[in-house]
Specification:
The protein is mainly α. Helices cover about 80% and strands about 5% of the residues. It has a domain of about 50 residues. The longest helix has 26 residues. The protein starts with a helix and ends with a helix. Keywords: Membrane, Transmembrane, Transmembrane helix.
């Protein structure tokens, strides 16, 4: 049994599955749209603010602390993605490994915490 060929075929299948998602992200310019979000304008816009406050109020009413923590983590990750530190991860087209590792381990810790909240604890 040739494991190299098997791994290559598996990776090819994974690549075939991921390729349409990559094309969709490129066609919709999603990273640029996220980068250009006006946070102060967003949080003063009633079309965003009213549903957001309603969601937080509903989660408080239902005492869904787990969901509030996850919502806070998502907002914190969104905020952190726009910081100056994140802008310096790639310099002159080269990835700065010494700056990427803290982001990688921090993301893994947050993801592990969210998985723990969703599956590890009983209510």
């Amino acid at each position: 049994m040739d494991f190299g060929a098997t791994i290559d075929s598996i990776l090819q299948k994974i690549g075939d599955l991921i390729e349409p998602v990559g094309r969709l992200v490129q066609e919709t310019h999603l990273p640029e749209q996220i980068k250009e979000v006006d946070f102060s304008g967003l949080f003063s816009n009633p079309w965003f603010l009213v549903p957001f406050i309603a969601l937080v109020g509903y989660l408080l009413y239902k005492k869904a602390l787990r969901d509030l923590i996850i919502l806070g983590a998502v907002l914190a990750i969104w905020w952190a993605s726009g910081t100056q530190y994140m802008q310096t991860l790639v310099v002159n087209g080269e990835l700065q490994v010494n700056k990427v590792l803290p982001v990688l381990f921090g993301g893994a810790a947050i993801l592990g915490f969210i998985i723990y909240l969703l599956f590890g604890r009983s209510d």
